[in-house]
Known about the structure:
single chain; Cathepsin B, Chain A; 2 domains; 8 helices; about 15% strand; globular
Amino acid sequence: MWHLLLIVGLVSCDPRFLDFIKTFEKNYDNEELVYRLGVFKDNLEKMRVLRTENPLATFDVNEFSDLTEKEFNDRMTGWVPSPMDNVEEFIPNGTFADDIDWRSKNAITPIKNQGSCGSCWAFAATEAIESDAFLSGKYSLMKLSPQQIVSCDKKSSGCNGGDPSTAYTYVAANGIETDADYPYTAKTGTCKFVASKVSVKITGQKKVSGGESGMLTALATHPMSVCHNTGGWQSYSGGIMTSCGSGGGHCTQAVGYASSGDYWIIKNSWGSNWGNSGYLYLKKGKNLCGISNHAGWPTL
C-alpha cells in the first residue's frame, strides 16, 4: 500500500510516468522509483530539445525512457573500433541509382533485438552476411547467428563490445550457423560452435572509401554494416533525423536510401517497437553521426 501511495504521489504532477510504468511493466523499489522519475523527466526535456533540432523527426517515450544516456549507451550500443588497415578498399565509381531499398527486394531479414548486451557489432555483421549471402545467389535468405559471433570471435569482446570487421574475419575462417541452430542469449557465454552446422561461408570483407558518395555507390549492389554515433537515437520514434549528437558508438545495417527526403535507411537491433518499426531515417549530405566513417560488407 505504501509503495502504491508513493507512486501515486510522485506521479500526480506528471501522469506520463505512471503510464510509462504500466505500459512497460516497470518495477522499482522506493528509492529507485524517485531516481527513475527524475531520469524520466530529464528525458522528456531532452525530447523537447530534439524535436526543435529535428523538425522532420519524432521523439517519444519508449522502454528506454527511464535510462540515463550513459546507462542506455552501456546497455544498447557496443562498438569498439578495430583497425581496418588491411581490409580491401572499395573504390566508388560515382554512379548510383536515385533510390535503393533492399527491403523491397526481399534481401533483409526481420528486425532483431540485441537486448541489454553490447553486441550491436555482431548483429550488424550478421545482417550484412545474411543479405549479401542471399544476393550472391548461393544461399536463400536465412536468419544467421549473432550469438556464435558474440561467443566465438575472440578478437572482440562479446557483450562488452566489438567491431564487424573482426566478425567478418572470424566468419571467413569458420563459417556461420543459423540462428535456429545457435540461438541468441544476450550473454557472451562460451563458444559452442559446431562446424558441421555451418550454413553460410564468406571469403573476406571490403570497406567503403569516399564517405557518403562511396556509400551511395556501394549500396547499389548490396547492404552493408555501418558504425557510428547515436546522439538522439534513444527516444527516436519516426521521421527523418537532421542532426546528431555524439552518443554511444553503435553498429547497424544500412539497407538503402531515398532521394525523396534525401535520407539513409538504417536497420537497427533494438526491436521492432523502437523507431520506425525498428528502422531509422537519417538525413544524407552531412555525414550525420559519422554514418560513413566505418562501413563495410562481407565478400563471398
